[in-house]
Amino acid sequence: MTASKQMRHALVSVYHKEGLDEILKKLHEEGVSFVSTGGTRTFIESLGLPCNAVEELTGYPSILGGRVKTLHPKVFGGILARRDNTTDIEQLAAYAIPAIDLAIVDLYPFEDTVAAGATEQEIIEKIDIGGISLIRAAAKNYKDVLIVASKAQYAPLLHILEEKGAETSLEDRRWFAKEAFAVSSGYDTAIFNYFDNRESSAFRVAIDEPVHLRYGENPHQQARFFGKLNEVFDQIHGKEISYNNLLDIDSAVTLIDEFDELTFAILKHTNACGVASRSSVTEAWKDALAADPVSAFGGVLIANAAINREAAEEINKIFFEVIIAPDYDTDALEVLTQKKNRIILIHQKTKTADMQYRSLLNGVLMQNKDMSIQTAADLEPMTDKQPAPQETDDLLFANKLVKHSKSNAITLVKNKRLCASGTGQTSRVDALKQAIEKARSFGLDLKGAVMASDAFFPFPDCVEIANQAGITAIIQPGGSVNDRLSVEYCNEHGVTMVKTGIRHFKH
């Protein structure tokens, strides 16, 4: 067997015909004959090209409402026959089966049909049987057959035709086979996940077209992103988004989605180092920055309102990697685009994944994303003193921030502005001390501030330290066997404490 093969006979049966006409005309010029089904055959003949019907080859009509068209030995024999196997070739001759050298076959749009909200019967009818079988058969016999399993492969096929005519190398055919198995495995994954109905009885994920990133978490690591970033963002300026950028961007988007009122957030290494809700973007930015102007350097910025020129001029005073907003005024972009590498993203309102995955050891962890959002109605008083309305607002604000901070985490908030946070500490006491020290280092007064903890207090030491720093109200999940010790201290010192019953660990 030689590595190079000449294409003489092609089976064409596709749902997507856009971009196929040029390929068919080129194949015809190269002397390739066609056999096809129903609508595809009509399309080929509309181009003025000769085409044999599959029914003429098999001797059977399309039956069962089109469910059975190509499932026949005269079709699959021509695809699966090994050209270097004498017995296979003899059987082709004995049963008058023409060898098929090229199969252009795609699949019914199952995922699009599900996404469109079709009925179950309509969805079931979009489970392709003949097409998937043809794709797998042709890919299996890649040593002799070229398989084009998706319109995404039309361009590579046309390139081969323009460069080499109707001749393919073993390398060509193996690449197309690999792409075909990606198509078939992705298709079966989509069908399984539909029937699984989010029960996660098995782990199946298929995403095509990876984005190759400059490098991973560190320069010596390779990295790719599998997904469609253009559905979430429109990048209007700046360099390529990096692996670390994506981690911060994901954290930023997840955090900002918690807020309905105008809010600006600054993140560094996935933790918020500045957040404020205000009546204007400029004021929100200034107050967010004041919490930690040092950490903001090189950070990721995000707002849930359009950026105007006034805000842009203030923001432009510091170095940052990424800014995200739902829109930008034209004159604001004139300011923000002054730095050529600065990444500027427009955040599209689209649904993001509601499941989280993490590879570890020899497997994958999977969980539902923490989508819980507490309101005033969810707060259960633990102390004699009840929170005032402003304290309630601040407690809920702080609770949103601690939810998105690395554990052990403490957030200190005053007037809907993050004063400081302690994150990623092995001790909750250390997290609190870190937050207090940071707030003081930037001249922020904690008298009348509130505190949020991502988990309960096993001992009253944190509430004692918080009270001594001027904290007047605390929100925590509750549930410690020693809750009463913290409550007793708060009652003795006039500190308000409420619980949510919801823990927000984040690793």
Defining key terms:
23 strands; single chain; 19% strand; 507 residues; alpha/beta; six-stranded mixed sheet; elongated; 18 helices
Mean pLDDT reading: 92
Radius of gyration: 31 Å
The biggest beta sheet reads:
6 strands, mixed
Helix content: 25-40%
Structural class: alpha/beta
| Range of strand content | 15-25%
Overall shape: it is elongated
**Number of helices, where a helix is a run of at least 4 consecutive DSSP H or I residues:** 18
Low-confidence stretches at least 5 residues in length (pLDDT < 50)?
Answer: none
Distance N terminus to C terminus?
Answer: 56 Å
Query: Strand order, biggest sheet?
Result: 10-15-14-13-11-12
Please count the beta strands (DSSP E, at least 2 residues each). 23
Write structural notes for this entry.
- This protein is an alpha/beta fold.
- The protein has 18 helices and 23 strands.
- The mean pLDDT is 92.
